[in-house]
Records
---
Amino acid sequence: MSEDTTLLPRTRATRPGWLPFSMVVATLAAITAVPVALEVLAPERADGTVGVFERVALNVDAEGAFGIGGFIAPEGWLRESDEAVDGGGEAEPSSSASFVSAAQDVRLEASLHFGADDADALLRSSSPAGTAILPITSAPHGEGREIRMLEYDLDVGGGFTQSFAMCTDRAPYVCLRFDVEMLDDADRPGTIRPDISAVLDSAEVY
Amino acid sequence: MSPEAMTITQPRSPLGHRRRPVLWQPQQPVFWLWLVLTVPSAVLLIVDVVRRTESVAGLAAATVLVGAQGAVLWLLIRAIPRFRRQPLSLRLAALLWGGTFAIMAASALNTVNSDALDRYGLTTLSASISAPLNEDLLRFLGILVVLVLAYGRRITVMDGVLYGFLVGAGFELVENLCYALQSTDVGETLGIGLARLLVGFALHALWSAFSGAVLAYCLSRTQQRLGGRWLLLIPAILAPMLLHAAWDSPPLSVISAVQLLLFILLYGVTLALFCCAVAWGRRSEFVWYTETTGWGGARRDFARLPRSERRALGATAIAQERDQAEASIPAA
């Protein structure tokens, strides 16, 4: 194998000349112009606004066991907080995140729990006493894991609340809980908002 | 044909011994483009490296790691072509394009893109949008520039593989050096350097080699007046971009094992594409060899010969082609 410095016959190869030069310059101009144009045309965006495909990861570390959960935050919503909260013991949230919709009409709080008996027990444990007789149903969401839902509206005039929980298959259970609080009465009980449905579909817990 | 017959060398013409500088082509507009883009970028890169360097020990550690990677890449580069070695000046031109202009321009453009994409709520997807668009396109332009400079000689698919690999290797080496210099602690520098060395080794080079193979194929067909088949460039550009985008994409799950599996899958696909490109390149080189020498044997017969003998035969073929080229140039 040796270095090739052979010239082709001049009659055989017509050198490309200015065409590749123009192509390179045009491409460089395009990839420089695109971000500038995007920047100029970009809409205003409030600080803390959730972007596309932003995954929230929560974790819990209690009794020597470790659990992780996560979901894709609703796009366009505002982050209220996403600081991890240290677990104070069994069934206490060890990590949580909360968001409010852009129209400020819905608030979502997510929290990861360790040591609950099951999803239903978790839902009952931190819901108002008045919900004790309300049924817990299955929500048609979640990939591979059942999501349980408790819906209640205990105060006249305000919105209603939907709580969801999904847990791991084996004890000790790690459960992910969502509390969705409707801040006005625009939404009707019995239905799950599309943005909340997307959050539930993306939820995972291990 | 027996191996003995294959080793008969053809007499070389006096002109055939003359070595021509192949990078220095002032009549070629892309040569000036290469010069204008790489020289200032090289200066800026040196300034940037000096600015990033917090300690001599850190720089030494980063240099050793990048040097180790460079050595492995060099061994790969030596092993890829079988018949003819591409001109040194063009190999350096490819390496420098990737290691100076492409990396510096990509770095600046990625930053601007990132700011713009943040405002569209695409923060988490920013890397997987910006990096493939800027980095892969800039490297592809480098391969185009070098192949145009090599156009005066018969282009084979192997030329594209090798120049593509070199553009990507230059890019990756400097990128790793810059990453390693980001930390102030020598231990951390070593950690970052090792992680960059082991996770996704030579990805940029492997992706560019595939693009280069297809580009060289199109150019070689144009050179032989067979029609460029330029539509093949769409997958040649898109495939590395999509692999790069997937590599840089946000995690698909909170479980890190899922991401690891994705990395393994993507690296496997990348290696498969690269191996296909190399096999294609070797076939193309062999076609060049048989057309130049008129040899009618099989490729595996040639591959069985000792390396030194293969080199000698390759040198003979190059001399023959050179002589044919000189003979066909009308006297002034």
---
Amino acid sequence: MVVVLEAFTYILIIAILGLNALLSIYGIIYGRSLVKKLISLTILSDTVLVAVIFAGFYYAYPIVPPVYQDLAGTGREFLVKHASDPLPQALVLTGIVIGLAVNALIAFGIIQAYRLAKTTDARKVVETLSGVEVTE
Amino acid sequence: MLLFTATLIASFTATIILNPATPSELKELAKYYVLNTINETASPEAVTAIVWDYRGLDTIYETLVLYLAIVGGLAIFKMSEEALLKTRIGLTLLTKTSTKIIALLITSIAAAIAFHGHLSPGGGFPGGSAVAVASMIIIPVFAAGTLIEKGISSTKLVAIRGAALTALGLVALLPVVRGFEIVTNQKFYPASILGLPISGSLSLYNLLESLAVASGFTAVALYLSIPEEAYKGGSSA
């Protein structure tokens, strides 16, 4: 029973991550407002980061952070069996901060577009800034 | 709701049909990192060891991406600070006093996160982001104009950021002088100074990176706090 439940949660997390990614891609493509596109983009990037964390996931109890309690390195055997995977954590740690900076850059761009075009609707922004009529 | 139910049912069927084997032990690469982090990097914290030692060059280029993104954002705005000086009225005295206490608490916790990053969970990136949180609650409460009057301008913040990044690059390049590879840690830097465990260059990287991230995001928050009226009055064509 426990094994079946473990497998179920494993597959459920994968399915929810996939659903989340699909919904956010839909939002990026079909959202009319640039702000909503940005929100969808942040949801997509967070989904990818969770997927990266999930790649280092394994069943163990208890799970401890991959940190030694002293500088001599005691508890090495325990840590190998119970530590969470440090590599995805390291990748996600930098990924979050870089994502924040890139989102800030996009937000600056959206604010500038709003100031020039007085709207955040993607089509109207293009129409105002380029003068070309956008067809469906 | 419908989508969620469909996902639930689909994963339930997939479990019964496929019955996958769930992972039950650490991957080989992760085992290597966990076992060798103390010997090879003098840091008991495997995540910081990966970020600044095993994949140090990668992280330095990511810092470069961060720098370019923020500088690009500030370059789009190109605001004069006279427009910011118009916003001098903050919130009430009650809010200001409580914000002072909270900001002090956040900053001290952020310093602990950043400077103990090589010994406990944390490091330069989370520490710097926490300082940025403190500045983001200070800016609306005290108003951006007051901060600029006190001498915290975005030019100075970008200068701090540039200095911290230059120092970070020097820390990375210094081992080349003695003939080691770039971003060498333990062969060049000492594991401890005066009995204080500093894990070679890891603590230096954490310190400089937290400075860079904190000043960069504070500059972004300062620019984003400009009200629309000030912009229209400042440079409407």
